[in-house]
Amino acid sequence: MLITVILCTFNRSVSLAKALESVAASILPPEVAWEVLVVDNNSNDSTPQVVSNFCGQHPHRFRYLFEPRQGKSYALNTGIQEARGDVLAFMDDDVTVDPHWLHSLTVSLRTDEWAGSGGRILPERKFSPPRWLALQGPYSMPSALALFDLGDQPGRLECSPWGTNMAFRRVMFEKYGGFRVDLGPRPGSEIRNEDTEFGRRLLAADERLRYEPSAVVNHSLPEHRLRKEYFLKWWFAFGQADIRENGRSSNAWHLGIPQLFGKALGFLLRWLLAFNPQRRFYCKAMLWLWAGRIAETYRQ
Hints:
The protein is of the alpha/beta class. The chain folds into two domains: about 1-220, Alpha-Beta Complex (Spore Coat Polysaccharide Biosynthesis Protein SpsA, Chain A); about 230-300, no CATH class. The chain is about 40% helix and about 20% strand. The protein is built from nine helices and nine strands. The protein has helices spanning about 15-25, 45-55, 70-80, 100-105, 170-175, 195-205, 230-245, 250-275, 275-300; strands spanning about 1-10, 35-40, 60-65, 85-90, 95, 115-125, 155, 165-170, 210-220. Strands 1, 2, 3, 4, 5, 6, 7, 8 and 9 form a nine-stranded mixed β-sheet that branches. Helix 2 (about 45-55) links the parallel strand 2 and strand 3 (about 60-65). The model has no long low-confidence stretch (mean pLDDT about 90).
């Protein structure tokens, strides 16, 4: 079996070097061949030089590919086309992976019992959330930080894994197509549901996805991602993506514009009346979510 790790990157040469260093240290059984395919999505920093250094240090292990069409889904789909592996694993340029990550994530995909798998996405150990942000409980919002942790027990996934820690058998892309370009981040759009939409596409077709808690990546959370403005922009785009992904079949779509405004008004009142800082910001974020749904419904 050959595994291809696909890593798409754009202007993050510093964190990219850390990501590549971590995956270069991967430990797999000697009978498992693997490669890392870095897809440069039109970067104008030192990304080519960073990847070239790793290609020189690890010949036949790392490959560089340039995708000029701006947008992550274009880069992902080009990586899928150029990958040599039977199993395709995905990571981002702002994470570091555990040495056993790749083996743990892909070992169940050596047979056709499972279509894909996903692992845990944890913050860096030094991470401390601001007081207004809940990561557990009724007001938790880990998804805006791309954190994914379903506990210590492996088993069947009932939800889609997240893009920085997932793997699929190659045949799944041949059967169901690639990532939707209208749902991936690109200039002028912060919508970034291309990864979870693909997982939901497989689940809707009754394909089996596996949760592997021992497949761990640590996600970097720079200061700008811990600002309220970032969260509000993320939730607005998430609301847009819900309508764009599901169209007229979306539950929110069927409410109609007046009812959508009613939902938004409810969260507006809860935001204004809340005293708990975590509950207060959660209600504000949900207001932005419904505003995104309203905007995309109106656009369509």
